[in-house]
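Quick one:
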Amino acid sequence: MLSRPLHHNPFKPYFQYNVTLLIIQKLFAIWQIESCTVQRRPIHSRIIMGRKLPKEEYGFLLEELIGQNLKIKRASSKDLQGIEGRVIDESKNSFLLETSKGKKRIPKKGSTFVFESHHEAKGNLLLIRPEDRTKKLAKEIS
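Output:
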């Protein structure tokens, strides 16, 4: 007498496991490719989207911004709009301004700045470490 049913296939569980594993691996590979091409590009590249920036408008970004006077035209917070001051420090994500009321840290993301040279720049374009800005933007400014 047989101890197992006649319709039992010893390879079936192994085959189902391999097919499931292959599907999961393919989905993971697709997810990795999509996440690398969409999310890992620097934010300034996503804003520029492959076009060269005119040097007359954006050439001033290649210079040092510390020490320049700055006015916030638009900001994510209404309290920050209209603030004027001298840039005393800059990080990747913010400016530290010395204003008439004291020091204020202004986030770059979502803000629009007007510099003393009357040039306007969106903060999202400036989301680069200050020491790397010259190197990265020089390639994109014609």
